[in-house]
Amino acid sequence: MPICAEPYLEMAQALGCSEDQVIACLQRMAGHGRLSRIGPVFEHRRAGASTLAALAVPAERLQQVAERISQYPEVNHNYAREHHYNLWFVLTGPDRPHLQRILDELQADTGLTPLDLPMLTAYRIDLGFALGDAP
């Protein structure tokens, strides 16, 4: 997305359509589960601290624990996986001690010990793909 005052309008101009059409298309995609979020992705090391965390949650508690985790504004991903560690989430905050306080709170609240996996090295991949007809 362009960084400007009217990103949807700029996208529309690049696509040769109206801003309303861009917004309607994005809403349709979200409605069909093809798009879950539109927003910035920050270089977390420049903005603070981040970690990937996981919990091994008993199946009967998965929904309850997931809802508890999602209450934190610092959580920007929270999803279930088919694994012993079946609930994964990403925490982003101002510094590492802040993240540790949240992990400690979650452990105290749930009785489950988080697996804390801070990123050591970033490996960038191009996730870009054509949205139109292939040439």
UniProtKB/TrEMBL annotation:
Lyase found in the keyword field: yes
Entry EC no(s): 4.1.1.111
UniProt xrefs under Pfam families: AsnC_trans_reg2 (PF17805), NirdL-like_HTH (PF22451)
Superkingdom to which the source organism belongs: Bacteria
Coiled coil: none
Transmembrane segments annotated in the record for this chain: none
Keyword Acetylation appears in the UniProt entry: no
Function (record text): Involved in heme d1 biosynthesis. Catalyzes the decarboxylation of siroheme into didecarboxysiroheme.
Protein name per its UniProtKB record: siroheme decarboxylase
Organism (species): Pseudomonas wadenswilerensis
